[in-house]
Structure prediction request, 329 residues.
Amino acid sequence: MESRVITFSRNVFLPLTSVCANRCGYCSFHAPVGRDTLMPPDDVFHTLTQGAAFHCTEALFTFGEKPDSVPGFTSLLKSITGHSSILEYCYAMSEHAINCGLLPHTNAGILTADEMEMLRPVTASMGLMLETTAVIPAHANSPGKDPERRIEMIADAGHLKIPFTTGLLLGIGEDRSDHIASLEEISALHKKYGHIQECIIQNFCPGVGTEMEHFPSAREDDIANVLLLAHEILPSDIAIQIPPNLANAKNLISYGVNDLGGISPITIDYINPEHPWPQIEELAALVGDNVLQERLCIYPQYIKKGWYSSHLAPLIHALNEQVADQCGA
Prediction:
């Protein structure tokens, strides 16, 4: 079989808060309002400085969905950070990331078009997992997981020409027909707007203390079957990604996978803390005879199109040259 290029991004993971308006049955990230559920500026600064020292190029900002709507959060945020909203805080920390030489990628849950437009000057790319087009019990207490609302946000991002990441979460109560419907929806959105960089095929992993802690995770052959569907349904310019800390990447690469997502040399996966990322030095063994190649959080085709703010342009161009030099391009 001919070798392929398998990409990854060297990043730091910055969970600004785990406070969330949703109550997903499988989530172990959500936590109540408290000082230990908000990442203070000094911790953000320290992580970014470390990331720069380890040659990271991406600052992944993640937080619970609409935390400002949770009672007590805004006053806590103001007292610790001096900011009046989580998006204002994210903007300020993104500015610091840029100053440290890292490109921000934002996973903020449901955002309006105006909110995405507000973050765009300091954000190279954004993401929102579609998860599934199915209405499932695991999302009964999570208004932000309404499929139509998530599709609307992905479409808004396309209209705004924001390089975007989405994907499926497997094993949360959906079935094969839902996988097909979800992939077809992603394909249709990309064909209309051309903005989806990558589709993550992620397996649910049961978390201790969650409603679904005794649910079985998706089996490897189930993941492989969805990867084959993704390869068949999605346009060829959408990268197909699996998280190598959650699934057996070595066995699944051959099913059309061409990206391993963000890998951090210094921070854990705060969404799945029981599952450490492989060290970057170990990735070559996972991809076998394929070619491992580092990338930025904004893919090359969107750099060529100029889908980024003038504020980010100098850093994007500098890091793009840096990554190209490492690849021998």
